[in-house]
Amino acid sequence: MEYLIWAGAAVSVLGLLGLMGCILTVARAKAQGLDEAALKARLQKVVALNLASLLVSALGLMMVIVGIFLS
To answer: Would you say residue 70 lies in a domain?
Structure first.
């Protein structure tokens, strides 16, 4: 089950990359000095990506745990 551990680690890294992308997107949006409505609209788009990244990262960690249990 070693392959499940490595695959889970890779999936977790993909989720973390997505989270870092969300952080960068929000930082850029705040640095642009947008008005409140435009900033809110951009942040609402980022929320979906943020939740998806968290889900992917959590699934990867679950894969690692299952791989460890089955080893």
So the answer is: no
